[in-house]
């Protein structure tokens, strides 16, 4: 669960009691976006042909990673416009950070979706996942071996490179995968043989 910090409306900005259907009180970002996408589909369905839905979106930075509503939100209908505006009263403006090596959020966006047809509509649905490169059949041996050596500290014994790759799809599809690893190390100039059985990145 990723805790999010956004402005809470009911019970704070207006009224004395938080409302159960107020999405600003949802603490988990994934659940928040799931609810946003559900509301988006219901609101878009209520549009007449030619109608427009405008949604103001914001970004959140947490632990060095950007969470963007604009990127994570499903897009329904015709994307007509993205409007960028200056964001005022940012929570981060009132804080100081130990590490200031990042660009602070200074804008928010409004997305304009248009309904062009009665029965049909275009859509773009965000799908996220995780891939282990050692199980990818599209990665080249050069890139895979380079990734392994970098992960091992940019200097690695050949036997340790074998251990990192063994048992994954990339080598399971080639019974001579150890020979392929050695060939990859020998023919690519980005790899340097430091001593027998020890390789480094250039």
UniProtKB/TrEMBL annotation:
<keyword id="KW-0808">Transferase</keyword>
<keyword id="KW-0614">Plasmid</keyword>
<dbReference type="GO" id="GO:0008168">
    <property type="term" value="F:methyltransferase activity"/>
</dbReference>
<keyword id="KW-0489">Methyltransferase</keyword>
<dbReference type="InterPro" id="IPR036388">
    <property type="entry name" value="WH-like_DNA-bd_sf"/>
</dbReference>
<protein>
    <submittedName>
        <fullName>DNA modification methylase</fullName>
    </submittedName>
</protein>
<dbReference type="GO" id="GO:0032259">
    <property type="term" value="P:methylation"/>
</dbReference>
């Amino acid at each position: 669960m990723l805790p999010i910090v956004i402005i809470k409306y009911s019970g704070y900005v207006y009224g004395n009691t938080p409302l159960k259907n107020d999405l600003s009180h949802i603490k988990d970002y994934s659940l928040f976006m799931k609810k946003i996408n559900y509301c988006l589909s219901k609101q878009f369905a209520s549009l007449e042909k030619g109608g427009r839905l405008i949604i103001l979106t914001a970004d959140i930075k947490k632990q060095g990673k950007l969470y963007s509503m604009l990127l994570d939100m499903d897009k329904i209908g015709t994307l007509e416009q993205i409007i960028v505006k200056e964001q005022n009263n940012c929570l981060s403006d009132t804080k100081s950070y130990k590490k200031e090596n990042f660009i602070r959020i200074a804008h928010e966006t409004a997305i304009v979706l248009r309904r062009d047809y009665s029965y049909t509509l275009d859509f773009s649905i965000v799908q996220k996942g995780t891939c282990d490169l050692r199980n990818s059949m599209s990665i080249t041996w050069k890139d895979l071996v380079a990734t392994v050596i970098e992960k091992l500290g940019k200097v690695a014994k050949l036997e340790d490179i074998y251990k990192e790759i063994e048992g994954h799809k990339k080598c399971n599809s080639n019974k001579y995968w150890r020979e392929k690893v050695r060939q990859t190390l020998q023919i690519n100039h980005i790899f340097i043989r430091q001593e027998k059985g020890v390789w480094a990145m250039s």
